[in-house]
Amino acid sequence: MAYPEPLERLIALFERFPGVGRRTAERLSFHILRDSRARQLGVAIEEAVQKTRRCGVCFNIADADPCRICSDPKRNRASVLVVEEPRDVEAVERSGAFHGVYHVLMGALNPADGTEEHHLQLEGLLRRATGGELQEVILGTDPDAEGEATALLVLRELDRRGAGVKVTRLARGLPAGSALEFLHRGVLDDALEGRVLLREGRGANPI
Q1: How far is CA 47 from CA 15, 53, 72, 89, 181, in A?
Q2: What is the residue extent of each domain of the chain?
Q3: Cis ω on the peptide bond leading into residue 66 (within 30° of 0)?
């Protein structure tokens, strides 16, 4: 072992992060040793772990339950945008293009990568869709193979549960293979405005 054991442990922990190899882990570790401000990282991690939770309604990350979006009386609760990750919510919120509520699946269907149906926060969405308050479910999963498979899964389960809601998909103006978090406001505006109807809700008023 070339490095002292405490440093080796730190390097090994950094190597467990996605996309971080041995050399990058070493650089990060030595940066922490050199820069006293970097030692605040441990405090920040501890606070994030202790104070960050999941909203019991939409499953987005938050510091309160329900989250600030779900508890906002100004939001349109009849329309829910279904996304894969919390960063997708942040991207849409930055655009200011959507004023409804969200549901975060916490992933996309990808059996090859180990993400199966039961790993997704799908049951909560189905409860909301059959609870009588929702009128429209907007499928905002990424326009890639995994996102399309996830959207089809959600549509299938909504049909299986007999949810009488309108189901739409964000318009194909979204670049194929891209992710919501990297799109600018104009693209999101166009996608929301031109979303595609997949099924009309039973007895629902248009939104």
Answers
A1: 22, 11, 25, 22, 25
A2: 5-50, 76-199
A3: yes
Residue 54 has phi, psi (to 5 degrees) of: -100, 135
Token pair recorded at residue 1: 């072992």
**CATH class of the domain whose range is 5-50:** mainly alpha
Query: How many residues make up the chain in this entry?
Result: 207
* Chain centroid offset of residue 84 CA: 4
> 81: closest CA among 145, 131, 129?
129
pLDDT digits (tens, 9 = 90+) for 93-147: 998 989 999 999 999 999 888 889 999 999 999 999 999 899 999 999 988 889 9
CATH number of 76-199: 3.40.1360.10
Q: How far is CA 52 from the centre of its chain?
A: 15
Structure tokens at 17: 């992060």
Rg of the Cα atoms in the chain: 20
- The pTM score is 0.74
